[in-house]
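[job 4417] fold queue: 2 targets
>>> target A
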Amino acid sequence: MNAALEELKTRGLFAQCSDAEGLSRLMDTEQLTFYIGIDPTGASAHIGHMVPFFAYRHLTNAGHRGIALMGDGTARIGDPSGRTESRKIISYEELDQNAASIKAQLHRFIGFDGDRKITDHNKYWLADLNYIDFLREIGIHFSVNRMLSFEAYKKRMETGLSFIEFNYQLLQSYDFLELYRRYGCRLQIGGDDQWGNIVAGADLIRRVESIEAFALTFPLVSTADGGKMGKTLKGALFLDPAITTPYEFFQYWRNVLDADVRRFLLMFTFLPVGEIDKVTASGMNPNEGKERLAWEVTALIHGNEEADKAMAGAKAAFGGGGEGDKSAMPQAKLSLARFEAGYNIVDLFCDASLAPTKSEGRRLVEQGGAFISSQGKEPVAINDVSILIGADKLDKEGELILRAGKKRYCLVKTKTH
C-alpha cells in the first residue's frame, strides 16, 4: 500500500475507502489532488472538525495537493448527516463571516500556500445555479432509493427529513465534480458519517466524466469509555481562544483517560510513531504522556508560546500554586471586601464560575469536590457549606487558587472596588 495511506492507517486515520488498491496505485504514480469540506455553521471550528485536517497535513507532507473547501454554499441548506433534527437556517452574511473565521483558523494549522495547500468556496458555483438545469444535468444521475439506503438519510427518516435537506447530497456530490473539473481532484476525505455523500460524489464523477474518483473516511473519534471526544463541561472544544481558552484546551488533553493517550498522540500530533511508543511504553508514567499530548496539540492549534503558558499554568494549578505561572489559568476578579468579611465557600465557587448554581455549589462542597490552595500550599478540600474564607487565605498578591473536582481550576484575584 502507498506509504501515505499506510501512515494514515498506522495513526488510526482510516475507516473506509472505496477502492484502497486503486487509490494506492494512483498515489504511487502521480501527485493526487484531494479535498475536505467544512460547512461554516458556527463561528469557530472545534477539535472534531480537525481529524480530517490532520490527515490533510499527512497527505500534503507526502507531496499531494489538498483543497480545503469552505462550504458556505452547502451550509445554506444544512447537512442532515449525524443529525436528528433540521439545522438552523443561517443568514448568508453570517455564513460568510463564519467561513472567514474558520478559514483563518485552518490557515494557522495548515499554512495555505496557493500551490499544494489551497482553499476554495462552494458558494462560487452553488449560489447562482439554475435549478432546472441542475436537475437535468445532475439530478438525473441520482436514485432516490439508493439515497435513502445511506445511514444519514435512514436515521433522519425516523424523525422527518425536509426536502431542502434531501438536496444536500446532490450539492456535495456536485462539489466533488466541480473540483474535479477545476483542479483534477480525484479524492474526497472526511468523517465516517460522510461516507454516503462522498461515495455519491465519486459515483457522479464516474457517470459524468468516465473517471474513477475515490472516497476515504476516518473514524468518528470517541473516548475509551465511550464518551464523545472533545466534549467539555462548556460544550465542544473550540479552536477560537475566545470560546475555549488555550489553558482550557490544554487541560482537556492533560486530563484524557490513560487508555486514550497513545491513540490521541497518533491522531492529533505529528510525533514519529517510534517516539510515541517510547512516551507510552509500559512502565512509563501516563501523566508524562498526557503532558506531552497536551503541549503538542495546544502548540499545533495555538502556537508554542500559548502551549508554554498553558503548561506553566497547569503546573501552578497542580503544584498548589508553588510552581509555574498562574497567569495562564482561568481567572475571576472578586471583591477583597468579601474576603475581609468572610466569603461563604458556596458563594465563592459560584462567583468564580466553578459552580453554575448555588445548589450545584452546595453539592460540590458536600461531596468533597471543592478545594482551595492557600498561600502556595497544597489544595485542601472544604466540605462544610457554612465555611467562610477570609482574607488571611490570600497570598501576598491577594490571590487564591480554587479547584472544582479534579480538573477545573480558577485563579481568584481580588479587587478593592
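>>> target B
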Amino acid sequence: MIYFLAGVAAIAGLLFGYDEGVIAVASPTLRADFPMSALVDGFMTAAVPLGALIGAILAGRLTDRFGRRRVLMAAATLFAAGALGAAMIEALWVLVLARLVLGLAVGLAAVVSPLYISESAPLSIRGALVATYQLAITFGIVASYLTGLLITGPGSWRVMFAVGAVPGFLFLLGLLFLPESPRWLVLRGRAEEAADSLTRLRGGQAGVAAEISEIARYAGAETKADTGFAALLHPTVFPALVVGVGLFFLQQLSGINAVIYYAPQIFNHAGFDDHTTQVLATVGIGTVNFVVTILAMWLIDHWGRRPLLVAGFAGTAASLLLIAATLLLPSLLPSWIVIVALLAYIASFAVSVGPLPHVMMSEVFPLRARGPGMSMASVSNWGFNFIVVFSFPLLLADFGLAATFSLFGVICIAGIGFTLLRVPETNGLSLERIEAHLRSGQPLALLRPTP
C-alpha cells in the first residue's frame, strides 16, 4: 500500500512537470493565435509559479486543519479544471487565469504530497519514496515535450493543454482508495484511526503499536508548545526553517526553470535555429532529467543527503560556467559544447539539487510545525521560481545568455557553502529522532546518524 500511496501522491509532481514543460512546446502555435510582448509572455509563463506561491501560503493551515489527503483531493480537482480551462480560452487574460488555477493546485500539492509520503513511509525507504515526487515532475516534463513532438499544426496548443486534465482525474480517483496520514491522525487525537491507517500502509500489524506509541509521545509534547506558523520562530525550529527555505532559494536560483521553460529559446540563442532540432534537444534534456532522477532515488538513501548536495551544486556550477564561456568565446569553443554542458547541468541537478530540497523539507520540521514549515519552504520555492521565470526573458534581452548563466553558476557555488554550514544529514534517522535533535538546542548541521 505504501508504494501505491507514493505513486498516487507523486501524480501531483507529474502534473506540475507537465504544466511546467508544456508551455515551452505550445508557445509557437499559441503565439500564432495570440501574439504577445516579452513582458506578457513572461507573466503568462510565470502564472503557474505565481499561483503556486499562493497555494503554498495556504497549504500549511489547510493541511493542518483538513488533513493531508483531503487537501490533495482539492488540488487534483483544481488540476483538472485548470487544464480544461486553459484549453478552451478565447483571450490571453483567461489563459493567465487558468494557469493561476493550475499554479494554485501545484502549490498545494508541492507542500502536501512530499509531506503525505514522508509521514506514511517506513524509515528505510523514506528518502526514495519522497523523491518519487521529483521523479514524477521530470516524467511530466518529458511527457509534455513528447506531446509537443506528436501534436502539431495550427491550434495544437489547445490539445496539449487539455491532455493535462487526464492525470488530474486519475490523481483524484487514486486518492479515494488511500488512508489519511497516521501522524496527522495522532496529532488530532484519533489514535485508533491512526493505527488502522498505519496497519494498511505497513501491510500488517507487526511493529505498528510501537511506531504509534513513539509518534503519540512526541505529538503529546507538541500540544504543549507553540504550534502553527508561530512555532517557526522558536529557537529550536528556526534552524529547520533556514534549511527548508534556503535549499529552495538555491534550487530555484540555480536557473533550472529558466532552462525548462525556455529550452528551445536557449538553443536558438546558442545557434541552433532549426525548430525541430530545438525540440529534439529539449526532449533530450527532459529524458536525462528523468533517467538521472531514478538514480537519485537510490543514492539519497545510500550516499546521504549532504554529500549528494555538495556534488550536485558543484556539477551545476561547473556546467553553467562552461556554457557561459562557450557563448563568450565562440571562436574557441564549438557550439555543441552548449548541448553537452546543458545535459551535464541537468544531470547534476536531477541527481541532487532537484529532489533533495523536497526530501529535506519533509524531514527537518517537527510535527507541530511540519505543515506551516513546509508551506514556508514552498513559498520560497515558488516565490523565487516566479522571479526567475518572469525575469529570464528580460535578463536575456538586457544582459545576454552568458551573463545570466554566469549569475546562476555563482549562486550554485554559494550552495556548496550553505550545505556545509547549515544542512544536517538525516539519512537513516526517524522523523522523531530528527525532532529530538532540534529540541536539544544543538546546531542542526551537527545532526548525523548514529554509527
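[job 4417] complete. Note on B: The mean pLDDT is 84.
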